[in-house]
UniProtKB/TrEMBL annotation:
It comes from Streptomyces dysideae. It comes from the Bacteria. This is Alcohol dehydrogenase-like C-terminal domain-containing protein.
Amino acid sequence: MNLHRFFWRELTLVGARLYDRSDFERAVTLVADGTVPAERLISKVVPLTEAPAAFEALEGGGDVMKILVDCTDDAQGATR
């Protein structure tokens, strides 16, 4: 990784720890065969304009598991 470029572009790096390839393969299998209902993991899909409120909801806890931010032009104003 070119760290100079990374910092120059002000990128954010997010990593996962304690998981290896076999863990991710197992997770994909569990979702694919319906053992884990993926639709229940996503609490809400919001347009980019609602991202700040989505982050506040995540920080607030409660019944929020995951909120997806849809950055496409078509998503503006649409929520699920």
